[in-house]
Give the backbone structure.
Amino acid sequence: MPIIVDKDRKRRDILQAAMRVFARDGYHRAKMEAVAEEAGIGKGTVYEYFKSKTDLFLVLHDHMLAELKDFYMKELAGIQQPAAILERFIAVAFQTFRVWEPFFLVFFDFWAEGGRGEQQALLQTRLREAYAVARADVAAIIAAGVKDGSFRCDNPSLAAASILATLDGLVLQWLCDRDAFDLDAMRETLTQGILRGLQP
Amino acid sequence: MPIIVDKDRKRRDILQAAMRVFARDGYHRAKMEAVAEEAGIGKGTVYEYFKSKTDLFLVLHDHMLAELKDFYMKELAGIQQPAAILERFIAVAFQTFRVWEPFFLVFFDFWAEGGRGEQQALLQTRLREAYAVARADVAAIIAAGVKDGSFRCDNPSLAAASILATLDGLVLQWLCDRDAFDLDAMRETLTQGILRGLQP
Amino acid sequence: MPIIVDKDRKRRDILQAAMRVFARDGYHRAKMEAVAEEAGIGKGTVYEYFKSKTDLFLVLHDHMLAELKDFYMKELAGIQQPAAILERFIAVAFQTFRVWEPFFLVFFDFWAEGGRGEQQALLQTRLREAYAVARADVAAIIAAGVKDGSFRCDNPSLAAASILATLDGLVLQWLCDRDAFDLDAMRETLTQGILRGLQP
Amino acid sequence: MPIIVDKDRKRRDILQAAMRVFARDGYHRAKMEAVAEEAGIGKGTVYEYFKSKTDLFLVLHDHMLAELKDFYMKELAGIQQPAAILERFIAVAFQTFRVWEPFFLVFFDFWAEGGRGEQQALLQTRLREAYAVARADVAAIIAAGVKDGSFRCDNPSLAAASILATLDGLVLQWLCDRDAFDLDAMRETLTQGILRGLQP
DNA sequence: GATGAATGAGAATTCATTCAT
DNA sequence: CATGAATGAATTCTCATTCAT
């Protein structure tokens, strides 16, 4: 079914284009025309693939999260020890700071929009679920460590929330000012701090 | 005999109104007319006090930060021990989660806009400076603890950055989902974690 | 009656200010506030002296024309010979080019507005009357010359109209481009041409 | 398959509509919506063809001048004798009084705006160039007459400036008051006067 | 009288979306 | 399917005018 593949490909292209444009201009300032141009297609064509700007935004959220999760899965695959997984997890997070910069700039918009449940109920739901999943994933790693005795933690979900929060907060701070702190030093210090905090 | 009006007072009123409206609708969706209405004045009057929507936004940023800082100063006044200051600092931060909810929703917009230096260079600069000041303030507390031997920390600025990041990230997560975690439990765990991390 | 004199004085000041501001910015772009500022008074005070912007504009027209006529009267007083009067009249017109530059810039607006009878019926009427009076005045000079045998002219009113037209057109051209022609050369040539055209 | 539209045709339609609306209401009073309505299109469509109201005004100036020049070229084509050309030139000018009435009303606005170099530098430049070209064209006719001995004139450019000025001034006067003078009588008298003034 | 703070009608401009081709 | 011309709702900002003091 080559047609389906083709449509899917184009859909993906538009999403990529949207990410770049939204990252550059911000969701509200970004024009659908700019997205189309970036994707190398006509303005009207975007609407063949996405119902509206909001829809595109929503789908982009899912798409980006899926890509991010894929990335993590690949990078974390095969590691056995919970501590090693956690260390690698943090390292990957710091990698994304640099590599996925546009990704996070768009996330600023997701946060800003999702914070207003009234206006963007669907996005807020998505954001909640995404956070819940992420917390669960990280909590699972911690729980595994607790189980095998390498970690000590009364509330893995809470710990997961705070780890995620720290990483979010760091990308926020770093994207506002690349000189806020040294990425490598921060990664090392943070890793040590978190692992020590989980020590039995 | 010109009409005597407390221009400063009115300016503040408009800023308060803007905060509420921006918090509710988001900066971009918010209409200047809505701000005026919220302030109980006419549309044109807003422009007597602020040059433009952008200007209002910018001034609001400074105003909100100043208020926040005031709040912290008052709450932290008189505490002597660095560890006590830090503990109280975190506690105050968690207080603000609930009380200053609109404040943080608007901050989402500051971050989203400030992340785009191209569009909002002035805001970005403001954001950078604000972060730098906050880091310096927290770092100073830590450094004081290092000096009096109650803390051990190789890089207070780095530690400050990560503490601030965690708090930012938590408010982000919590505003997206009030059920993400229990505020009190998180505060306690986090406080312990941070203080233990700084133990000599 | 010093009060009346005072009010009259202020009225005149406002008119002068309006002329300068209208000349600089154009009638439509000019703000009433700028007129007030130029006159050194408060914005509201202008409305104590003039009902509206349109009213101010209208009165300014009359005021400027009266001043112009005064100027001509003084300069032409005492000259006896029709040819000498006409020559002097043209010379005075050229003088005004330089000296009354703002005056004519405002006249551009009178013409532009007065051309639209629908919008500015009163101004159009004023403009018509002013032109009629000017034509009659110049025609009278020519008629005097015809009477005393120094001129020959079948239709003094028509000749007057064309003389006035030439002067208007020249100021128009000159204010658009000060290098369009040399004022002195033009004055001489024009004077000769007109006088020769009226030679018996 | 994009919709095939004669963009040039539509552009011209909008310009024609703008001319009518600007002539009726004046540039500043005219609303872009009125222009759109007159052109039978939507408000936003005008902006697909012209960047702004100012841009539309500027392009209209060039467009109108080009049309006027075309008209003159056609009417003057094939005439050989300088005196005949000049006579015809004046006759055509008087024709335009009646036929191109909206044209000249809009020109009032060009003059009023162009006189303020600060506000409308581009228009002023255009106006200057247009005048310079017109002077050169008329001067060339006179110079040709001087060359073949049919005219005598020391300064054709100066003469051209004054001829153009007279015509401009007459249209100004006539549009303010259609009863100011009889067009035909004026044309005849003026033609005679100018030709006599150029007699060897 | 004088003032300038307040106002809101009004206008330019933008841009998501539609739809004829 | 793809396109981009057309659209008008929506929004920012301006400024003449009013009126309480």
User: Anything to note?
Assistant: The first helix of chain D runs from residue 7 to 25. Chains D and A do not touch (no CB pair under 8 Å). Chain D has a mean pLDDT of 93. Residues 1-50 of chain D form a domain with the Arc Repressor Mutant, subunit A fold (CATH 1.10.10.60).
